[in-house]
Structure formats: structure tokens, C-alpha cells
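On clarity, I found the account of how folds are encoded harder to follow than it need be. Since the whole study asks how a given chain folds, the encoding of that fold should be made plain. For illustration, here is how one protein appears when written out as sequence plus C-alpha cells:
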Amino acid sequence: MRTTSEKKDMYAIINNMIMDKLQNGKAPWRQTWNDFGPARNYVSKKPYRGINALILNNTNFEYPLYLTFLQVKELGGHIKKGSKSIEVIYWKTLEFENDEKIKRIPFLRYYNVFNIDCVEGVKLKLPTKYVNDSNEYCESIIHDMPSKPTIQHGGDEPCYNWKEDKVKVPHRDNFILSDEYYATLFHELAHSTGHESRLNRETCMKPAVYGSRDYCKEELVAEIATCFLCGEAGIANNIIDNSSAYIQFWLERLTHMLREDNKAFVRASALAQKATDFILNRIEESVLQES
């Protein structure tokens, strides 16, 4: 697979895409369910993770399958004229010895992928529609989460209390759609992964004022993790609010966050992937995050 070093400012490309979606009135972590499953590589079948999953699951292609230029060539095909590639990013680590100590410096690399809709000259095997009992699968995700917090039903305000390690969510009957109930519960469970007994996320383990930097960092992780979990379960993320007030809130907060740290959104996506992996009890390779 041919890769390219960080000749482009990939943070700027990603951040511009995120801000552009917000400016057009759409939460970039809102992911509608694809009938054919999550975005993945056509050859390896491996789903994309972290920020790559967020980007590739938000395209308008019918099939969420992608290949590199070399993979297309090896299959005997070619890319349609005028097709545009999408950058997929990942971390590499440069190691060097300094004062008899090994120092590791992470740096960003990227390569380009094409959706199978851009491929000609090869007979591609198209996937069948992803079919499962979404409610049953959601229940199994919740049931099988390791060392999960106490889940209490009642009231009308979902929340996670880190001091008591307790998730509170309204009864399922209070929701018009079951998808809304599960997406809400996933969101609060995502917060709970930050507890010191789990992933020990700093932004989870202390009080945070609404709208503050720490509040937004933690909320962003939970928003993106909810997106990943809903995609895994095959349900629509109906709790994401695309109202003008919600969009304006994130436009303002992300503008400030990215001005201070242009890696903030990529980091949040990596933390969200870790939270998702924890809830699903999966051990995966590292995602896009600096050490």
C-alpha cells in the first residue's frame, strides 16, 4: 500500500470538513444507518476506525466499501476518470536514541482510498443488506459491557454521575422510538467509560461547567462514541439535535477548541473509539491518537 507522509495539513483538512458540515446545519457526528454496514476496506473487510470511520460513514455512496489505488490495480480494474479519492489517516512512530533512551515521536501519515462506485473493469462482489434484530443487539451490547456502571431508570433527564458511577435514563416507554432510548443510553454509557475504574478520562472525573472547555471535550467524545455504537447496532442516532441552537453551540465551541489545539477533533474521535471498544469489550489495534 503506497502511503504519503504529512505533506498536506491533514488536521486542517479534517477540521475544515467538520466546520463546513456545522456551517451547513449538520452535526458531523450524526450518522444515518447504512443498510450495508459500517465503512470498511473491500479487500480486508476491516472496518475503519476513529476519525476515518466518522468521515467514511458520512459519504453519500450506496455501498460503504473502499479500496486503495493499488488494490484496484491488483484486482485488474481502474479508477473512473474524474473520481475523487478520500484521505485515510493513521499514526506512525519515529524512534531514535537520545542519551541512551529511546524517544518515540508520533507523526501523521495518510493514503487515499476510493469508494467501489469509482471502480471500473472488475467484477465486484456487492454486499447484501445488513440484517439483525437491532433491539436485541442493543440489549446484548448493554448486557455484555464489562464492569458497567449502575443503570437506573426513571425521571426525564438522562445523565451520568461519576461520583456514584451511576447512569440514569428515562424508562424506555418514555421514548417515542426504541432507537432514541438506546442512543440515549449509549451516550451515557460512553461517558461512564471515562470513570477511573475504566479508561480514566480526565474530563469525566471532575465537575465541569456547561459550555466549558472540559465539558465540551467530554461531550464531544460521548457524541462521537454514540455515533459509533448506533452504527454498530444498526440503529438511527435520533438523539442528535440539528436545531440551530445546537449547531451554533458547537460552531462556537469547536472554533475555540480548534484554535487552541488543531488536533482536538482527531483526539476526541480516538477517545470515542476507545470508549466504544470498551463498551463492546473489544481489544483493537491503537487508533489515531498521539502517545
